[in-house]
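Let's inspect a concrete specimen:
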Amino acid sequence: MIDEKTIQEMITKIRTAESEIGKGIIGQRDIIRQVLLAIFADGNVLLEGVPGLGKTELVKAVSRVMSASFSRIQFTPDLMPADVTGTNLIIKQDGNNVFQFEPGPVFANLVLADEINRATPKTQSALLEAMQEKTVTVGKKTYQLPSPFLVLATQNPIENEGTYPLPEAQLDRFLFKLLVEFPSKEELYRIMELTVTNRKTELCPVLTGPEIIEIRSVIRDMPLSDAVMDYALSIVVATHPEREGAPEAAKRYIQTGASPRAAQAIVKTAKVRAFLEGRYNVSFEDVRFVAYPALRHRLALNFEAVADGVTPDAVIREILDGIRV
């Protein structure tokens, strides 16, 4: 059993890491916090926003502060699966030709899949096994990815020409979908100070891989009351319009509801949020906070929602408001 002092030291380290990442990324405090929630819940993140908002810089800052190996893959229509996972090469050994596996860029602690929706479905699927099983299979052999392992993927919501929308199965592998907003005028001013001058911001490593794994283990052991668990599950069930008692928003706008992975995402990240807040118990507010990033990419909205300009977040808000606690 971990003692109280050790737990407080872990919380302090996470908060220090959050502050350190914030030195390199102006604004986006909520995004930084939610990325940390995903990291300590052992999940992948999909970052959506127009170009130039610092999504790539955010991932680089996280890798430096977490002392993690970093790899960037620029997804393009001509990218092949082997360009992601690696491939077997024929080499000379003792006068014979033998196969030797050459690892691809996916073999890193933190993998940035930049503009993931620009690659073909075949190449996108090369990440599926890595994201879910933390392994890569090439030929008849399976290779273990380094631990911890996390995929942070970016996509541009505006430019659809030459893109391939992510299939539902792959979207479901992302723990969170985060919407990166345009900075305020004050934040934009600070960004200019940081990027168009000779000022440099050095980020210090705060956490290591083994420490991240240990913190994850402590968080997984956190207790969850029956009432909070019931609330989390009620939210997921309410996204299914075919269920008896489904809210009006779900019946009107949702075509397909969230999967059981959504419930896992909500419960795991609610625990992490409580931990970061210095609590060893999960509240209803923790569940509400993580419901939006955990559900927004798992709801398939129908044509009526598109015609009415209804967003997934608006539907989630109505669902949350309709569930009594």
In short: The domain at 222-325 is CATH 1.10.8.80 (Helicase, Ruva Protein; domain 3).
